[in-house]
Amino acid sequence: MSSKTDVNTGSSWDWAKWSMVAFLLALGLGANYFYISQPWPIRLLGWLVLLCIIAALAFQTSKGKQVLEFARESRMELRKVYWPTRQQTTTITIMVCVMVVVFALILWGIDSFLYWLIAWLTGQRG
Questions:
Q1: For residue 55, what is the enclosing H or E element?
Q2: Where do the domains of the chain lie?
Q3: Could you tell me which residue, 9 or 63, shows the higher pLDDT?
């Protein structure tokens, strides 16, 4: 990650960059309202271009750089994850389903026994 001096030197202009991001977003909303009669694919294309510009500007701030660094580090960590094969996933899924059924039957049996016991103790059972 960047050193503290890199983050602090860029922060003096960050407020201006974030203000420009907010202004461009407001401008896009206004343009979308103003050009409501235009076909939506054209307006969507305009939004995509504007959002790319906004993202490029936002990533020039210190917070934006931190977000990019976090995304890079997350991607590196994701590559280290062990992903099971299809057969392993299927086997584990079947085991989980079987265990759910077994525990459901056990709990049903305990519940039925306790229901019978309480009914017998309270005299509701003949």
A1: helix 40-58
A2: 4-79, 84-126
A3: 63
Compute the distance between CA of residue 80 and CA of residue 91 in angstroms, rounded to an integer: 23
Distances (CA, A) of 123 to 9, 36, 116, 117, 118: 82, 75, 11, 10, 8
The dihedral through the CA atoms of 63, 66, 71, 74 has a sign that is negative
Residue 5: the pLDDT is 44
What tens digit of pLDDT does each residue of 10-19 get? 567 889 999 9
- What Rg, from alpha-carbon coordinates, does the chain have? 30
Whole-angstrom Cα distance, residue 65 to residue 77? 18
Which tokens belong to 55? 């993202």
60 closest CA partner among 5, 25, 9, 3: 9
Rounded to whole angstroms, the Cα distance separating 61 from 58 reads 6
Q: For residue 81, give the DSSP letter.
A: P
Tokens linked to 90: 């299927």
Q: What is the pLDDT of residues 44-103, one digit of tens each?
A: 999 999 999 999 999 999 999 999 999 999 999 999 999 999 999 999 999 999 999 999
